[in-house]
Amino acid sequence: MQSSALQPATRENKLNRIEQLRIFCMAAESANFREAAVRMGISPQVVTRAVKELEAAFGELLFHRNTRQVRITAFGERLMHRARLSINALDDLFLDNNHRNDDALSGTVRITAPSTLAHTYLVPVLNQIALRHPDITLDLRLSEIITDAVDDKIDIGIRIGFLRDSRYVARSVAKVAFFVCASPELIARHGAPTTLDELVQRPMSAMVDRNTGRLWPWYFAQGQQLGPRLPAFVTDDPQVERRAVLDGIAFGQLGAFMAMPHLRDGSLVTVLQDLAPAPWDLYVYRPQRGPVPARVRLVFDALVETLSASDDFPLAPPT
C-alpha cells in the first residue's frame, strides 16, 4: 500500500501558512465557520483544520467555540489585523496598477456613520457603488455612539467633531456649522430671542448624548454653552428633534446639513446667528495606517468626493 506521505498534497489535506491565514481572516469576518467556507468555496472541515493548525503553530486559541457560537479571542483579533495587513501587502506585489480593474474589486467594506448623514448623502453614492461593483458587499452601520473602529472591524468611519484616536487616517471633508432654528409659527407665538438669556425663556429641544446618557449642551461663540432649563422636547434621535423643531414645538440647534433644506424653503428660520459657535469638522477616516485594499480605497474616495462637493455644509445660513 502506498504511504499517505507520498500522496499528492491537495487543498483538502494540506494548507500552506498563507492559505491558513486567508481562511482564518475570512472566518474572523464571518458569523461562523460554515459561512466562511461558503464564501471561500471550500468545506467547513478545511476552515476548522486551518484554524486548528494556526492555533497549534501560535500556541494560542484563536476562537472560543461552543455548540451555539464562534467568537474570536483577543489574541485572534490582534493576529487578524496583522494578517490582513500582511496579506494585502502580499497581494499588492502581484497586482499591476496598470491592470487593476473592476474584477479585482471584491469583498466586504464595513462603514460606520451617524444616521443623520445616511439617507441624503451616503446611501445614494453607496448604492451606485453596489450597482457598478456587485462583488463588493457594503456593510453600513448607523450610530451616533462613538465606538472603537479597530475593535469593531470597521474599514471606514464618518464622524462630526473630534477624533481622539491618533491611529486613524482622517480627511476633513467639510465644516459643519450649527444654527439655532425655529419655525415661523413658533417665532410668531413667542418672538425671536436676541440674547441667550431670552433663549432659555423659550421652549427648547434637548438631545440626549447616547455616549453618556446626559443632555448635549448648546454651543455658542467664545466657548459659551447652555442647556435647556425646562426642555419642551427631549429625544436621543437628531432627526426626531428636527421634526419637533419643524412642527413648531421648540427652538433647536441643528447641524447646517440638517437645517439647510428647510432654511431654503422658509419652513425654518435662524436666530442668534451673531452668537454661532465655530464649526466642527466632518471627517472620513480609516482606522489604521498601512496597505489599503482597492475596494476600501474606492469607497473611501467616493465618500470624500460626495461629502466635499455638497452645498449643505455652509458656514452661514442662506440670506
Number of strands: 14
Helix-strand topology string: HHHEEHEHEEEEHHEEEEHEHEEH
* Total individual domains: 3
Specify the helix fraction band.
Answer: 25-40%
Largest sheet: 5 strands, mixed
Output the CATH class name of the largest domain: Alpha Beta
Low-confidence stretches: 1-13, 96-103
Number of helices: 10
C-alpha end-to-end distance? 90 Å
The CATH architecture classification of the largest domain is 3-Layer(aba) Sandwich
CATH H level, superfamily name of the largest domain: Periplasmic binding protein-like II
Mean pLDDT: 84
CATH topology of the largest domain: D-Maltodextrin-Binding Protein, domain 2
Rounded to an integer in angstroms, the radius of gyration calculated over CA atoms is: 25 Å
What does this structure look like?
With 319 residues, the chain is an alpha/beta fold. It has three domains: 4-93, Orthogonal Bundle (Arc Repressor Mutant, subunit A), CATH 1.10.10.10; 106-175 and 281-309, D-Maltodextrin-Binding Protein, domain 2 (3-Layer(aba) Sandwich); 178-278, D-Maltodextrin-Binding Protein, domain 2. Helices cover 37% and strands 19% of the residues. Strands 4-3-5-14-6 form a five-stranded mixed sheet, with helices on one face. A three-stranded antiparallel sheet has the order 12-7-13. A two-stranded antiparallel ribbon has the order 1-2. Strand 3 (107-113), helix 5 and strand 4 (136-142) form a beta-alpha-beta unit. The longest helix has 20 residues, at 74-93. It is elongated and about 75 Å long. The N and C termini lie far apart (90 Å). The relative contact order is 0.14. The model is unreliable at 1-13 and 96-103 (pLDDT under 50). Belongs to the LysR transcriptional regulatory family. Keywords: DNA-binding, Transcription, Transcription regulation. Residues 16-73 form the HTH lysR-type domain.
